[in-house]
Design brief:
The protein has 2 domains: 250 residues, 3-Layer(aba) Sandwich (Rossmann fold), CATH 3.40.50; 35 residues, no CATH class. It is 42% helix and 13% strand. The protein has 9 helices and 8 strands. An 8-stranded mixed sheet has the order 3-2-1-4-5-6-7-8, sandwiched between helices. Strand 4, helix 4 and strand 5 form a beta-alpha-beta unit. Helix 1 packs parallel to helix 2 and helix 3 runs parallel beside helix 4. Bound molecules: nicotinamide-adenine-dinucleotide (NAD). The site of nicotinamide-adenine-dinucleotide (NAD) has 33 residues, from helix 1 and helix 4.
Protein backbone atom coordinates (compact mmCIF):
# COMPACT_ATOMS: atom_id res chain seq x y z
CA UNK A 1 0.00 0.00 0.00
CA UNK A 2 2.73 2.46 1.04
CA UNK A 3 4.13 3.96 -2.13
CA UNK A 4 0.99 3.54 -4.25
CA UNK A 5 0.70 7.34 -4.47
CA UNK A 6 4.29 8.21 -3.55
CA UNK A 7 5.22 11.80 -4.40
CA UNK A 8 1.77 12.64 -5.76
CA UNK A 9 -0.17 15.72 -4.66
CA UNK A 10 -3.84 15.43 -3.77
CA UNK A 11 -6.71 17.69 -2.81
CA UNK A 12 -9.57 16.10 -0.90
CA UNK A 13 -12.60 18.34 -0.50
CA UNK A 14 -14.80 18.01 2.58
CA UNK A 15 -11.92 16.15 4.23
CA UNK A 16 -12.47 17.20 7.85
CA UNK A 17 -14.65 14.23 8.69
CA UNK A 18 -16.48 11.16 7.41
CA UNK A 19 -15.51 9.71 4.03
CA UNK A 20 -13.31 12.68 3.05
CA UNK A 21 -11.19 12.40 6.18
CA UNK A 22 -10.51 8.71 5.54
CA UNK A 23 -9.67 9.46 1.90
CA UNK A 24 -7.15 12.10 3.02
CA UNK A 25 -5.59 9.83 5.66
CA UNK A 26 -5.23 6.88 3.29
CA UNK A 27 -3.88 8.96 0.40
CA UNK A 28 -1.26 10.36 2.82
CA UNK A 29 -0.45 6.84 4.03
CA UNK A 30 0.05 5.85 0.37
CA UNK A 31 2.63 8.64 0.01
CA UNK A 32 0.58 11.58 -1.30
CA UNK A 33 0.91 15.14 -0.02
CA UNK A 34 -2.60 16.25 0.84
CA UNK A 35 -4.41 19.58 0.85
CA UNK A 36 -7.22 19.03 3.35
CA UNK A 37 -10.16 21.18 2.26
CA UNK A 38 -13.21 21.73 4.40
CA UNK A 39 -15.56 24.59 5.10
CA UNK A 40 -16.39 22.99 8.43
CA UNK A 41 -20.14 23.56 8.45
CA UNK A 42 -23.02 21.47 9.78
CA UNK A 43 -24.61 18.59 7.82
CA UNK A 44 -27.03 21.09 6.21
CA UNK A 45 -24.12 23.31 5.16
CA UNK A 46 -24.65 26.11 7.66
CA UNK A 47 -21.72 27.57 9.60
CA UNK A 48 -17.97 27.32 9.09
CA UNK A 49 -15.05 26.09 11.23
CA UNK A 50 -11.49 25.30 10.11
CA UNK A 51 -10.59 23.36 13.27
CA UNK A 52 -11.70 19.87 12.12
CA UNK A 53 -9.71 20.19 8.85
CA UNK A 54 -6.71 21.43 10.83
CA UNK A 55 -6.94 18.33 13.04
CA UNK A 56 -6.90 16.00 10.00
CA UNK A 57 -3.83 17.79 8.61
CA UNK A 58 -2.14 17.50 12.03
CA UNK A 59 -2.94 13.76 12.14
CA UNK A 60 -1.28 13.29 8.73
CA UNK A 61 1.79 15.29 9.76
CA UNK A 62 2.05 13.42 13.10
CA UNK A 63 2.11 10.15 11.13
CA UNK A 64 5.06 11.45 9.06
CA UNK A 65 3.10 12.72 6.05
CA UNK A 66 2.73 16.13 4.44
CA UNK A 67 -0.50 18.11 4.60
CA UNK A 68 -1.89 21.64 4.52
CA UNK A 69 -5.33 23.08 5.20
CA UNK A 70 -7.72 24.94 2.93
CA UNK A 71 -11.01 26.44 4.10
CA UNK A 72 -12.49 27.53 0.77
CA UNK A 73 -16.07 26.84 -0.26
CA UNK A 74 -15.74 24.35 -3.14
CA UNK A 75 -18.92 25.63 -4.72
CA UNK A 76 -17.48 29.10 -5.19
CA UNK A 77 -15.78 29.69 -8.56
CA UNK A 78 -13.05 31.85 -7.00
CA UNK A 79 -12.78 29.67 -3.88
CA UNK A 80 -12.25 26.55 -5.99
CA UNK A 81 -9.56 28.34 -8.02
CA UNK A 82 -7.82 29.49 -4.82
CA UNK A 83 -7.87 25.89 -3.53
CA UNK A 84 -6.27 24.49 -6.71
CA UNK A 85 -3.70 27.32 -6.67
CA UNK A 86 -2.88 26.65 -3.01
CA UNK A 87 -2.10 22.98 -3.67
CA UNK A 88 0.22 23.95 -6.54
CA UNK A 89 1.96 26.75 -4.63
CA UNK A 90 2.34 24.65 -1.46
CA UNK A 91 3.39 21.31 -2.97
CA UNK A 92 4.64 22.33 -6.44
CA UNK A 93 1.99 20.55 -8.51
CA UNK A 94 -1.40 18.82 -8.45
CA UNK A 95 -2.06 15.20 -9.47
CA UNK A 96 -5.28 14.17 -7.72
CA UNK A 97 -8.56 15.93 -7.04
CA UNK A 98 -11.09 14.11 -4.87
CA UNK A 99 -14.44 15.94 -4.99
CA UNK A 100 -16.13 14.70 -1.83
CA UNK A 101 -17.67 17.71 -0.03
CA UNK A 102 -21.40 17.50 0.44
CA UNK A 103 -24.46 18.53 2.41
CA UNK A 104 -28.01 17.27 2.88
CA UNK A 105 -31.35 19.10 2.92
CA UNK A 106 -33.82 16.22 2.62
CA UNK A 107 -37.49 17.01 2.02
CA UNK A 108 -40.35 15.50 0.04
CA UNK A 109 -40.80 17.29 -3.28
CA UNK A 110 -44.15 18.86 -2.37
CA UNK A 111 -42.57 20.64 0.59
CA UNK A 112 -39.10 21.41 -0.73
CA UNK A 113 -38.11 25.06 -0.64
CA UNK A 114 -36.17 26.88 -3.33
CA UNK A 115 -33.33 27.35 -0.85
CA UNK A 116 -33.18 23.62 -0.05
CA UNK A 117 -32.98 22.85 -3.76
CA UNK A 118 -30.43 25.55 -4.64
CA UNK A 119 -28.03 24.90 -1.75
CA UNK A 120 -27.77 21.15 -2.40
CA UNK A 121 -27.34 21.55 -6.16
CA UNK A 122 -24.78 24.29 -5.52
CA UNK A 123 -22.53 22.39 -3.10
CA UNK A 124 -22.58 19.03 -4.90
CA UNK A 125 -22.86 19.89 -8.56
CA UNK A 126 -21.07 23.22 -8.77
CA UNK A 127 -18.76 22.02 -5.98
CA UNK A 128 -17.68 19.24 -8.35
CA UNK A 129 -17.63 21.36 -11.52
CA UNK A 130 -15.67 24.37 -10.22
CA UNK A 131 -12.63 22.52 -8.75
CA UNK A 132 -12.59 20.09 -11.72
CA UNK A 133 -12.71 22.96 -14.21
CA UNK A 134 -9.75 24.76 -12.63
CA UNK A 135 -7.76 21.53 -12.18
CA UNK A 136 -8.46 20.53 -15.81
CA UNK A 137 -7.19 23.90 -17.07
CA UNK A 138 -4.02 23.43 -15.01
CA UNK A 139 -3.52 19.90 -16.38
CA UNK A 140 -4.11 21.01 -19.96
CA UNK A 141 -1.43 23.69 -19.48
CA UNK A 142 0.96 21.08 -18.05
CA UNK A 143 0.26 18.71 -20.91
CA UNK A 144 1.07 21.44 -23.44
CA UNK A 145 4.27 22.25 -21.58
CA UNK A 146 5.55 18.67 -21.59
CA UNK A 147 3.96 17.96 -24.97
CA UNK A 148 2.37 14.76 -23.71
CA UNK A 149 -0.10 13.33 -21.25
CA UNK A 150 -0.07 14.20 -17.55
CA UNK A 151 -1.14 11.78 -14.82
CA UNK A 152 -4.17 13.65 -13.46
CA UNK A 153 -6.97 12.03 -11.52
CA UNK A 154 -10.43 13.32 -10.65
CA UNK A 155 -12.46 11.16 -8.28
CA UNK A 156 -15.99 12.42 -7.77
CA UNK A 157 -18.52 11.33 -5.19
CA UNK A 158 -21.95 10.27 -6.31
CA UNK A 159 -24.60 8.32 -4.38
CA UNK A 160 -27.05 5.45 -4.76
CA UNK A 161 -29.63 8.17 -4.21
CA UNK A 162 -28.64 9.66 -7.56
CA UNK A 163 -27.88 6.60 -9.64
CA UNK A 164 -30.80 4.47 -8.35
CA UNK A 165 -33.16 7.03 -6.73
CA UNK A 166 -34.14 7.61 -3.10
CA UNK A 167 -37.42 9.07 -1.88
CA UNK A 168 -37.13 12.43 -0.09
CA UNK A 169 -33.99 13.46 -1.97
CA UNK A 170 -34.99 14.98 -5.34
CA UNK A 171 -32.41 17.75 -4.75
CA UNK A 172 -29.58 15.52 -3.55
CA UNK A 173 -30.36 12.69 -5.99
CA UNK A 174 -30.53 15.04 -8.96
CA UNK A 175 -27.17 16.55 -7.96
CA UNK A 176 -25.60 13.12 -7.51
CA UNK A 177 -27.01 11.83 -10.83
CA UNK A 178 -25.59 14.99 -12.39
CA UNK A 179 -22.20 14.16 -10.88
CA UNK A 180 -22.35 10.67 -12.43
CA UNK A 181 -23.11 12.18 -15.87
CA UNK A 182 -20.42 14.83 -15.35
CA UNK A 183 -17.94 12.03 -14.59
CA UNK A 184 -18.67 10.13 -17.79
CA UNK A 185 -18.48 13.23 -20.00
CA UNK A 186 -15.39 14.72 -18.34
CA UNK A 187 -13.66 11.32 -18.65
CA UNK A 188 -14.24 11.40 -22.41
CA UNK A 189 -12.99 14.99 -22.70
CA UNK A 190 -9.87 14.68 -20.55
CA UNK A 191 -8.63 11.22 -21.58
CA UNK A 192 -6.41 12.62 -24.32
CA UNK A 193 -4.39 14.75 -21.87
CA UNK A 194 -3.89 11.85 -19.45
CA UNK A 195 -6.55 12.70 -16.88
CA UNK A 196 -8.92 9.98 -15.68
CA UNK A 197 -12.29 10.85 -14.16
CA UNK A 198 -14.19 8.32 -12.06
CA UNK A 199 -16.80 8.50 -9.31
CA UNK A 200 -17.35 6.49 -6.18
CA UNK A 201 -20.72 5.88 -4.62
CA UNK A 202 -19.91 5.42 -0.94
CA UNK A 203 -21.79 3.61 1.76
CA UNK A 204 -20.57 4.61 5.20
CA UNK A 205 -21.64 5.38 8.74
CA UNK A 206 -21.01 9.13 9.10
CA UNK A 207 -22.86 12.09 10.60
CA UNK A 208 -24.71 12.27 7.26
CA UNK A 209 -26.17 8.78 7.65
CA UNK A 210 -26.09 7.97 11.39
CA UNK A 211 -29.66 9.18 11.96
CA UNK A 212 -31.20 7.16 9.10
CA UNK A 213 -31.81 4.13 11.37
CA UNK A 214 -30.37 2.22 14.33
CA UNK A 215 -27.05 0.48 13.55
CA UNK A 216 -25.49 -2.41 15.51
CA UNK A 217 -21.86 -2.15 16.64
CA UNK A 218 -20.97 -4.71 13.99
CA UNK A 219 -22.69 -2.69 11.24
CA UNK A 220 -20.95 0.48 12.39
CA UNK A 221 -17.60 -1.31 12.01
CA UNK A 222 -18.15 -2.60 8.49
CA UNK A 223 -19.76 0.67 7.47
CA UNK A 224 -16.78 2.66 8.80
CA UNK A 225 -15.85 5.26 6.14
CA UNK A 226 -12.28 3.89 5.95
CA UNK A 227 -13.68 1.00 3.85
CA UNK A 228 -14.53 3.49 1.07
CA UNK A 229 -11.01 4.91 0.77
CA UNK A 230 -9.00 1.99 -0.73
CA UNK A 231 -11.03 2.37 -3.95
CA UNK A 232 -10.29 6.10 -3.98
CA UNK A 233 -6.56 5.55 -3.36
CA UNK A 234 -6.30 3.01 -6.16
CA UNK A 235 -8.14 5.25 -8.64
CA UNK A 236 -5.78 8.08 -7.60
CA UNK A 237 -2.66 6.05 -8.32
CA UNK A 238 -0.61 6.02 -11.52
CA UNK A 239 -1.53 2.35 -11.87
CA UNK A 240 -5.15 3.31 -12.60
CA UNK A 241 -4.16 5.31 -15.71
CA UNK A 242 -6.48 3.27 -17.96
CA UNK A 243 -9.55 3.24 -15.72
CA UNK A 244 -11.84 6.15 -16.52
CA UNK A 245 -15.51 7.06 -16.70
CA UNK A 246 -16.51 4.42 -14.15
CA UNK A 247 -18.92 4.68 -11.23
CA UNK A 248 -17.88 2.36 -8.40
CA UNK A 249 -19.84 1.60 -5.24
CA UNK A 250 -17.53 1.25 -2.26
CA UNK A 251 -18.01 0.60 1.45
CA UNK A 252 -20.62 -1.05 3.62
CA UNK A 253 -19.14 -4.48 2.93
CA UNK A 254 -18.61 -4.36 -0.82
CA UNK A 255 -17.07 -2.85 -3.92
CA UNK A 256 -19.16 -2.98 -7.11
CA UNK A 257 -19.08 -1.50 -10.59
CA UNK A 258 -22.29 0.32 -11.56
CA UNK A 259 -23.60 -0.07 -15.07
CA UNK A 260 -25.27 2.97 -16.61
CA UNK A 261 -28.30 3.65 -18.75
CA UNK A 262 -28.65 1.37 -21.77
CA UNK A 263 -31.18 1.39 -24.60
CA UNK A 264 -33.67 -1.43 -24.18
CA UNK A 265 -36.39 -2.57 -26.58
CA UNK A 266 -36.90 -0.30 -29.58
CA UNK A 267 -39.20 0.17 -32.58
CA UNK A 268 -39.69 2.51 -35.49
CA UNK A 269 -41.27 5.90 -34.72
CA UNK A 270 -45.03 6.32 -35.21
CA UNK A 271 -46.99 9.54 -35.84
CA UNK A 272 -50.22 8.43 -34.15
CA UNK A 273 -49.95 8.66 -30.34
CA UNK A 274 -52.93 6.33 -29.88
CA UNK A 275 -51.19 3.66 -31.92
CA UNK A 276 -47.83 4.38 -30.26
CA UNK A 277 -49.07 4.15 -26.64
CA UNK A 278 -49.71 0.38 -26.47
CA UNK A 279 -46.38 -0.29 -28.18
CA UNK A 280 -44.54 1.83 -25.60
CA UNK A 281 -46.30 -0.20 -22.90
CA UNK A 282 -45.17 -3.42 -24.55
CA UNK A 283 -41.56 -2.22 -24.68
CA UNK A 284 -41.66 -1.15 -21.02
CA UNK A 285 -42.92 -4.61 -20.09
CA UNK A 286 -39.99 -6.18 -21.93
CA UNK A 287 -37.40 -3.85 -20.40
CA UNK A 288 -35.72 -4.38 -17.03
CA UNK A 289 -37.20 -2.17 -14.32
CA UNK A 290 -35.17 0.71 -12.89
CA UNK A 291 -33.00 -0.30 -9.95
CA UNK A 292 -33.98 0.07 -6.32
CA UNK A 293 -31.51 1.38 -3.74
CA UNK A 294 -29.86 -2.06 -3.62
CA UNK A 295 -28.91 -1.72 -7.30
CA UNK A 296 -31.19 -4.58 -8.38
CA UNK A 297 -34.16 -4.04 -10.76
CA UNK A 298 -37.38 -3.38 -8.80
CA UNK A 299 -40.12 -6.05 -9.03
N1 LIG B 1 -22.02 8.44 4.15
C1 LIG B 1 -22.61 7.81 3.13
O1 LIG B 1 -23.10 6.65 3.27
C2 LIG B 1 -22.71 8.45 1.79
C3 LIG B 1 -23.51 7.83 0.82
C4 LIG B 1 -23.58 8.39 -0.45
C5 LIG B 1 -22.85 9.53 -0.74
N2 LIG B 1 -22.10 10.14 0.23
C6 LIG B 1 -21.36 11.34 -0.14
O2 LIG B 1 -20.05 11.25 0.38
C7 LIG B 1 -19.54 12.57 0.64
C8 LIG B 1 -19.05 12.65 2.08
O3 LIG B 1 -20.15 12.48 2.93
P1 LIG B 1 -20.00 12.06 4.47
O4 LIG B 1 -20.99 11.01 4.73
O5 LIG B 1 -18.57 11.83 4.81
O6 LIG B 1 -20.55 13.41 5.16
P2 LIG B 1 -19.90 14.44 6.20
O7 LIG B 1 -20.94 15.42 6.53
O8 LIG B 1 -19.26 13.69 7.31
O9 LIG B 1 -18.73 15.13 5.36
C9 LIG B 1 -18.96 16.10 4.37
C10 LIG B 1 -17.93 17.21 4.55
O10 LIG B 1 -18.07 18.17 3.50
C11 LIG B 1 -17.83 19.45 4.04
N3 LIG B 1 -18.45 20.48 3.19
C12 LIG B 1 -19.78 20.71 3.00
N4 LIG B 1 -19.97 21.73 2.15
C13 LIG B 1 -18.73 22.18 1.79
C14 LIG B 1 -18.27 23.20 0.93
N5 LIG B 1 -19.13 23.99 0.27
N6 LIG B 1 -16.93 23.38 0.79
C15 LIG B 1 -16.05 22.59 1.45
N7 LIG B 1 -16.44 21.60 2.30
C16 LIG B 1 -17.75 21.39 2.46
C17 LIG B 1 -18.48 19.38 5.42
O11 LIG B 1 -17.97 20.40 6.29
C18 LIG B 1 -18.11 17.97 5.86
O12 LIG B 1 -16.91 17.93 6.61
C19 LIG B 1 -20.69 13.52 0.32
O13 LIG B 1 -20.56 14.00 -1.00
C20 LIG B 1 -21.92 12.63 0.42
O14 LIG B 1 -22.99 13.13 -0.32
C21 LIG B 1 -22.03 9.64 1.48
Amino acid sequence: MAGLCEGRVAIVTGAARGVGKENALLLAKCGAKVLVNDLGGAVDGTGADRTPAQEVAEEIIAAGGEAAVNGDDVSSWDGAKAMIDQAISTFGKLDILVNNAGILRDRMLVNMTEEEWDSVIQVHLKGTFAPSRHAAAYWRGQSKEIDGPVSGRIINTTSTSGIYGNVGQTNYGAAKAGIAAFTIIAARELRRIGVTVNAISPSAYTRMTDSLREYTEEEIEWRHPRWVSPTVAYLASEEAHDLSGRIIQAGGGMVAVCEGWRRGAEMEQLADPAELGPKIREMCEQARNNSGMDGEPLD
